[in-house]
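Exercise 7.
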Amino acid sequence: PIRGVGLGSDVVRDSLMVTNLYKSLNIYIHAHNLYLQIMAEMGLFGLLAFLASMFSGFKSGLHVITGKKGEPGLRALIAAFISGFIGVLVYGIVDYPWSYPRVMLIFWLLFGIMLSCIKLANEENHSEHIQL
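Solution. The predicted structure, written as tokens, is:
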């Protein structure tokens, strides 16, 4: 539980079969909970790192939106990213949305684009103050 068993639902499934923790007749596929699956794969520290990165990104985005930094279209894009990520994270309570690697790839790609938009908005705001 502290360091996890490794990345991938196959690694978790194999670990459960070896330790004989899963007693059901159904085939184990994944945890059906994003947070339990992350904790199984990466452990408690991995789960805390994931939650901290989400919180940090959302906090930075909200500072841009409420501080009216950058252009209005950029702020709207950041708000759309944040609301989309919150939707996926709420959905993650009842299912594991990353069961397909392409969904996980798109999630992290869009998270990186959101962070780039936040940095761009902060730099635009900073350069306006310098030019005055």
